[in-house]
Amino acid sequence: MRELTRPPRLAPGARVAVVAPSGPVSEERLQAGLDVLRGWDLDPVVGPHVLDRHGRLGYLAGTDADRAADLQAAWCDPAVDAVLCARGGYGAQRMADLLDWTAMRAAGPKVFVGFSDITVLHQAFATRLGLVTLHGPAAAGVDFLKNARAQDHLRATLFAPESVRSIASGGTALVPGRARGVTVGGCLSMLAADLGTPHARDGARGGLLLIEDVGEQPYRVDRMLTQLLRSGWLDGVTGVALGSWDGCGPYGELRAVLADRLGGLGVPVAEEFGFGHCAGALTVPFGVRAELDADAGTLTLDEPALR
Q: Are 50 and 23 in contact (CB under 8 A)?
């Protein structure tokens, strides 16, 4: 697994576009998120379809074509320095094939932030654009709006990425040890659902796998990890950092599943790492070389996520 191109960091006054590639967005939360971004001396602009709702499928923020058009227009706008997703939910899979990846590649590197369902786009940005992306909080997400740690860590990553090269979880080691590799991952259910699709990575060989999920019972986590194992997608992974598992059943039961399915990989596994669907979620980059110390609960990047 190769390192990817790091986009430029943001500076005061940078224009950032907020788009909704997946689920519908609350106008109240959107406006609150925009206020946070303005407080950082950014210039947020909103895609024309961000507040849309699909006429028949209420879990989508407008039609697939409109959601794709908003993302592509924002990415290809030379005045836009970063694209932030308003929320996750579901729907990115439906619109990923509608994007003009050639045009987006020609637009050059810029910052892309999102998590949850946006995992599908993290994979596509890696395979189609060769670009480092940020698995970070959604601009209109409740965990972002109400939590200073999530805001502070994303802000530092965007403006002063050298200050957060070492990401400390405060967690413990499920399997002790140290490992090096290129960061990759996202929401477990989306990684499993994305297998075999045109824009997905063909495996995590040489990668440090960062995974998390929400609302999945232990047997479902077992099923998804087993699918990744059986497909060979986890062959050659060098280490694993486990983020949040909110609503995934009693942690003791889930921990037994994680140990059973990941312990056989023979690599370090760090748990309770503090990224994903949780209050105070840390921002972690995909596509950068790093060292995982499972015993210390740290992920140390060789270089800042943004240049």
A: no
Which residues constitute the domain of residue 210?
A: 166-301
Q: Are 223 and 266 part of one and the same domain? A: yes
pLDDT (tens digit per residue) in 49-89: 999 999 999 999 999 999 999 999 999 999 999 999 999 99
Give me the torsion for CA of 219, 277, 113, 36, rounded to 10°: 170
Q: Which of 49, 135, 199, 277 does the annotation list as catalytic?
A: 277
Count CB-CB contacts under 10 A for residue 65.
12
Q: How many C-alpha atoms does 233 have within 13 Å on its Cβ side?
A: 22
**175 and 296 assigned to the same domain:** yes
Determine which one of 153, 169, 212, 216 is catalytic: 212
CATH number for the domain harbouring residue 156:
3.40.50.10740
Active site residue 212: yes
Residue 101, burial from CB neighbour count under 10 angstroms (0-12, 13-18, 19+)? middle
Model pTM above 0.85: yes
What CATH number does the domain containing 252 carry? 3.50.30.60
Residue 218 lies in a domain: yes
One of 116, 169, 189, 244 is an active-site residue; which one?
A: 116
